[in-house]
Structure formats: structure tokens, C-alpha cells
## 1
Amino acid sequence: MNDRPDVLVVGAGFAGMYAVHRFRELGLTVRVLEAGGDVGGTWYWNRYPGSRCDVPSLEYSYGFSPELEREWDWPEVFSSQEDILAYANHVADRFDLRRDMQFDTRIVSVNYQEDEDVWRLTSEAGEVFEAPFCVMATGCLSVPNTPRLPGADAFDGLVLHTGLWPHEPVDLTGKRVGIIGTGSSGVQVIPELARQAGHLCVFQRTPVYTVPANRKAMRADVQQEFRENYRSIREMQQRNMGGVSGYRPLRGARAAPSVPGERASRTGILDLDAEQRRAIIAERGVETLLNFPDVYTDPEANEVANALYRDAVREAVRDPETAQKLMPKDYGLGCKRQVLDRDFFETFNRDDVTLVDLRRTPIETLTSDGVMTSDAHYDLDVLVYATGFDAMTGALMRANVRGRNGQALADKWRYGPVAYLGLQMRGFPNLFTVTGPGSPSVLCNMLVAIEQHVNWIGDCIIWLRETSRTHIEPLADSETEWAAHVNEVAEGTMYTAPSCNSWYLGANIPGKARLFMPYVGGYPRYRERCERETASGYPGFETG
Ligand code: N01
């Protein structure tokens, strides 16, 4: 391994993996430092039963290598965690990525050394690494959030977090299992836990809007058609708001409908009368509500959709009281990341599943053998936290990043993250973030966003070299103007409705500044802006 590489990369998820490949291609030396024991990032850590991607596999895959596209078979239309991790391992082997990676190395400080003009990174074990460029490929959902509940230390049973699930299978047979959280992770794991456990108790604070996931196996003819058309499909991704081509195979039957809500339709829900709305749901399922554009922008249309959604819950759940508890009432569809499920509502029709509504009966304390709410004690052997992540900024905060004059990123971002294009922060020269706040990031197909960022960063470093420059950081004005633009485009969408409390806004972490973090203006518009910077010699940056 190189002693002082050109670039240090933190994280060996899909971003860090591609960074190794791309930077090598550009003739740069690179070293990746990864806290986990191997590649895969989010798919390495989130091994809970039922873990699965919500973007179709043929699209949630690297586009940089036609050979890779030709040789990899996806078993399902929407892949499980196991299959995605197998793909990550295949990529690591095929491109010999691990040669430049160091695992079990958690970086605890990232410091700019002004006098020596390098980034100095220190690991938990005290190892020190230095390089002129540093890329934080630390992921958007990589710091699990475990709420501090009273009495948490008193609980004697097994404690698990979906985001840190053990590598060895967990035997829950006959166990009394409790789970806190009904976001994407909770919704995926709850039906699986119910199948395995003796009894499952679901502690729900906020009911969730979830729609059925596609369960189809991959058809060989569909995969083949993608292979034959991949170049134009990758082009289509570049022009799509969310980086998903939505390509429909012509030869076979249609492939899966891709991400719900993605199919463009100009008809609003308010254009239909009550009978037409009921008919379309009967024909296409409740997920069709996500295809009406006005649901995302018009509060009246949104409430019409929300009410129809609640009707669907009423129909799916046998016990009327449980159904009532499961109906979202105080926020709208489209405010949070859309959740997909397999058998979520059906699970509450089982005799061995109990739903506890924490809004009515909050948790008072954990005890040695369970959870005490304001009206009852629930005896548990296992408690699962499906309580999400300190999203988008959490990993950067945990790495303790300090720039020029020792300025802590935590101080710079006290009132919310400010970064130019989600790529760089003023005061932190030659430090780059991949899919950082202010970029489309979590609103885009991650693989597309990652490749675009890594390519941009690689090109930027090469340009600096070729023009005999050593530094780049955004101009103060660029950063401020971009932050204002990121805010402006999010305003008026359901994402920022006053009733909305999502991790996009940092609202899931007590004390975190409320600010909409990803760029909602669409991937193509964002990419063009990045390309303009590259083509015109980085006018939004200070270089030297
Ligand atoms: O986390 P979340 P997640 N007491 O923050 C509850 C991606 N992902 O891990 O809403 C009680 O969405 C919290 O309740 P509330 C995807 O981008 C993707 O599920 O704060 N409850 C909520 O119910 C997703 O959006 C996939 O009231 C507490 C839950 O915990 C993102 O990861 C699969 C609590 C957290 O939900 C995060 O999803 C999985 C407390 N003190 C994840 N604190 C797919 O690709 C929190 N909660 C399909």
C-alpha cells in the first residue's frame, strides 16, 4: 500500500469502491479506510431479515463497465440485501479493489494541516494517514440512531439495531420480541420478525404510508434486453429527475414498475371524481395514489389521497382499533421517503402480533425484562431498534472534520449543512463529500449519483494537476447562493410541509437543525450545473 497516496477515501461502500477504480484509471494513488470488515457500506451493515432495495436492481447497479453489466445476473427485480452485497463483493474481486483498502479502520479525526498542506486522518486505533486530497464517501444513512430511552441500560435481554444487524443468524424462535420504529427498516423487518418470533410487539410512534413492493423474480429475457440496451438506458438515467431510466422492455412483458410515483402522469387526483378515484385504486392498487403529480404539491389533493390511503388500511386490517392506530393522520403522502412493504398490514392480522400506539401510551421506561408504557408492561426477550439514522451529516460529524484554522465542520454546520453542490465546503480545501447535503443524493438512484460525484472529483483533481494548482475550495458566494437555491426548490413541496418531520429535514434527531438537506431540483439540472463548473475552469471555486 502507498505510504502517502494522492487521495484518501473514507468508506468502502459503493462510493468508496468506485472511487478506487476511477482514481486508479486516472493514474492517482488511493487508499480507502473503512470501519467495517469488508466492502458494501449500507448493505454490509443492514443485514436484518427482509432488508431490500427500493430501486430496481437493473438500475441500482454500476454503469461504468459494460463487461460488468454483461456478466452479472440479478435474481429478482428488486434485490435483497444478500444479493446486493454479493454484487459488491463480485465488483471488489473483479476490479481487485481490496488491494487499496484497509478494513476495521474507523476514522475518528480528519484534520487539515495547513502548514504541510495535507489532510491528516487518525483511526480509532491511533493509526495516522495523510494525503493532499480527502474524499468522504461515508454514506448518507450510516450512523444508526438509537434514542436514549429511560432505563435503557436496565434491559437484560438481547438488544439489536436494524442498521447494525449481527452477521450470524439470530434465532428468535419462540422469543418475545419488541420492535421500536415503523419506517422503511421497521416495515421490512416486522413481517419477518412476526414469522420467526413467539410473539411480536410493535411500538409505533408514527403510522407509515407504505405501498406493496414488487416481488417478481427477474426474467431472463428482460435482463437480456437490458444488456442489449444498457448504453441508452444509462443515458436515460442521466436525463431522469431521480436517476432511474424507467426503461420498459419491449420484448418481454413489462419489467417491474420501477419506483412508485416515478411514472409521469399529468392527470391530477383532483381531476377525478370520487367514483373514478375508487375505480382506479380498485384496478391498480393503493400505490397508484403516488402517480398523481398534484399529491406532491397541492395540500387539498394531498389530503384526498391521504383519506383514500386510510380507507385502504381500514380494508387491509381486520381489527378496526388496530387499523385506526395504523392510519397516518397528521402528515401527508410524499413528505417522507416512500416506504415499500411485503405483508406489512397483513402482519397485524396475526394473533401473535400486538401493536402499541406510543402516541396514546408513551414508553415510560425500559425495565430488566421489557418495556413499560403509560398503561402496561410488555415482557420481552429481545428489543429491536428500527429507529433510523442520523442522516446525511451524521457520519461527517462523527469523523470530527476540522478545516483551516482548526474550524470544526460541526461549528460551520451548526445551523444546518452548507456546501457548494454538496461536494465541497469553504474552509475545507481539497476535501470532497460524495452525495453530500445539497446534492440530489438520497433523492436520486444512489449508484448514478455516486458515479457522477466520483467522476467529477477525479476530473477536478486531474485538472488541478494539469494546471499546476494544488488547492480548490468553493467561493463563499457560491456556497451561500447554492444553499439558498437548495432551500428555494424544496419550498412548497410536501417534503417541507410544516406537518412533515422526516430525516430529510434532520427532524428525527433531537437538537439537529431543521433544514431540507438533499437537492430536490432534479439530477439532470444538478449534473448540468456540475458540468458547467468543470467545463469553465471551476468559476464557483477558489483555486490556486
Ligand atoms: O428510519 P426512519 P429507517 N421512540 O427514520 C421511530 C432507507 N432505507 O431506518 O416517525 C419511538 O425512516 C420513528 O418514529 P417517528 C430509506 O431511505 C431504505 O426505517 O420519528 N419511535 C420511525 O418510525 C429510509 O427512509 C430501505 O415518530 C422512534 C422509525 O423509528 C431510511 O433508510 C430500507 C423513536 C425510524 O424511521 C431510514 O429508514 C430501509 C423514539 N424515540 C431503510 N425514534 C429500502 O430500500 C425514532 N423512532 C426499502
## 2
Amino acid sequence: MGFFDKLKLSRLKEGLTKTRESIRENISKISQGRTEIDEEFLEELENILIAADVGVETTLSIVDRITERAEKETYRSEDELNRMLMQVMEQMLLDTCASHPVDFEAELPAKPYIILVAGVNGVGKTTSIAKLAYNYNKAGKEVIIAAADTFRAAAVEQLRIWADRAGVPMVSQGQNADPASVVFDAVSSAVARDADVVLVDTAGRLHSKIHLMKELGKIMRVAKKKVPEAPHEVLLVLDGTTGQNAVTQAREFTKCVHVTGLIVTKLDGTAKGGIVLSISRELELPVKYIGVGEKIDDLQMFDRGKFVEALLRSDK
Ligand code: GDP
Ligand code: GDP
Ligand code: MG
């Protein structure tokens, strides 16, 4: 592992500290003085995983697989159990979500590459856009941000501050402007400047599903006038601290919009980071990025193996 990979993993582990400590502490409690996996152990393990918001369905499959393995293998130590748990969880993710961690450095399939970012208020859309802009920019790509959340007074200003921090230009028409018109301008500007990426911030009102659908639909239609394949990606942002509610929210969204991937934020602020495992499984959508803090470099490409490692392996 290279230096930067190690750095990233340690940041991820730092972000997942709460979840990891909660899982490990509880597992070590139930494995004390145990030499085999029995009913009681499995039941308690089930409770631990559900408490970490791994999700009932996912937890049951994990416990099933562990039962299967426990019948064949002997368990001698807590470390062995952890290793087995990790293998099982990793396998679960391999089976359910095809993750294609594309590096920010990698060549994009289209130019400009248009990414629409959606999600309800407060989940971290604007922050995630800033983080994406920062990463693409750092990778040498020309980025334009479209301030298409024109609903809230502070939204455009907040985005401008982030765009400055990321060092990328932002296209806006101020509050109450037609979001579709902002996107049209941003995409036109990207085409004219031969920019690489357009990141579209959107409003997150979900109180009226019809309104939301209409607004996002209109944004997409207008973007297509300039770039027929747009948007190339629709990333749905979910707040990891809301646990199973995030799954419900995502279900609602995917009914309205063709979501291509997920960003799960605020994993640093919760002991329920296991939500990432259940989200990708239950929604059959790839988690592409995760947010592990409020700073501009606190976004990571989601990598199953690393995530499971950060979730379960302590440094001791
Ligand atoms: P939006 O309404 O969806 O655009 O959400 P914002 O981007 O404005 O974020 C709402 C709040 O969540 C802000 O206070 C952010 O700092 C915070 N936030 C976003 N992502 C993360 C994250 O990964 N970790 C933490 N701890 N906070 C985050
Ligand atoms: P409709 O509202 O469903 O008829 O969708 P349109 O395709 O007519 O466009 C909707 C919105 O997109 C318009 O109100 C404009 O704000 C914006 N739009 C469409 N075409 C253009 C254009 O050529 N320039 C600009 N600036 N905005 C455009
Ligand atoms: Mg916002």
C-alpha cells in the first residue's frame, strides 16, 4: 500500500471510529470465554449488527453465512471471529453491489461529464459537491458548479464559498432563478470552455414529490438540449446518521428519478456506519462515495474492502 492509500485508510478508520468501537466492543463482550459459536452468540451478534444499522435483511444473511462456516470451522479466538466476520461482510458486498471505484484521475466517458446531485435538505449535497469539485480539480480536471438550488436564500452563497474553497467557478443566477435555466447556462459554459465536469446542486424539497420530479425532470430536459446524454450520473446523497430512514428516503427518490449511484455522508458522526452495507444491498445501487467529515477533503471513493477493514479492524 502506498503512502497516500495508507493516509486515506487511516482517515476512513478515523471517520468510522464510532461504529467500529461500538461493534468491536460488543463483539468482544459476547466472545469472552467462548470457544464455539452457539445459538446465544449468533443471537447476540444479530443484535449488535442491527444496532450498527447493518439492516435486518443484511444481518440475517451475514448470520446465516457465519452459521454455515461455524459448522465447518473451529473458532479459537476473537481475532479469528473478526477475520471471519470481515470475510463474510466483504463477500456480501461483492455479491450485492458492483462497485466501480473510478479514480478522480481516470478519464471520464464524456466531456463535459454532467453529474446531477440530489437528496433531501440537510443530507450534505452542497458539501459533497464541494468535495467532488475539489477532488476533480486536484486531479487536473476543469470543473464547473451549477447553483441550481435556487430555493433557499443562503444556498447559492453557501455554494459560492465552497466553490471558492475548491478553486472552481460557479454558474448562478441568484435566488429564485429557474434552476433549469441555471443548468442550461452552466452546461453551455462547460461546452464553450471545453470543461470536463459539471456538478449540479439541486434543491431538496421532498414535501411534494410531484414538484421535485418536475423540477429535476426539467433540469434534465434542458441539459439535454446542449448535451443529449446528460445527465451522465445522478448521485443521490443520503445522511448516514439517519439509519434505516435513509433507505426509505432512497426508495422514494428512486421512484421519481433514475439514480445511478449513492453518496452516504456523515459516517464520522454515527455508530451506525453499517448502514452503508445495508443500503447498497437493499437498493441494489452502488455507493460511490462516502463522507467522513465536514472538511473539503473528507470525501472518499467507496471501496468495499477498505470500508469493511475500517469498520472491523482495530490498529491494536
Ligand atoms: P444540503 O442541504 O443537502 O446541501 O446539505 P449541506 O451540504 O448544506 O450539509 C448539511 C450539514 O451537514 C452541514 O452542516 C455539513 O457540514 C454537514 N455535513 C455534510 N457532510 C458531512 C460529513 O460527511 N460529515 C459530517 N460530520 N458532516 C457533514
Ligand atoms: P418547458 O418549461 O417544459 O417548456 O421546458 P423548456 O425546454 O422550454 O425550458 C425550460 C427552461 O429552461 C426555460 O424556462 C429556461 O429557463 C431554460 N432554458 C431552455 N432553453 C434555454 C436557453 O436557450 N437559454 C437559457 N438561458 N435557458 C434556457
Ligand atoms: Mg445545499
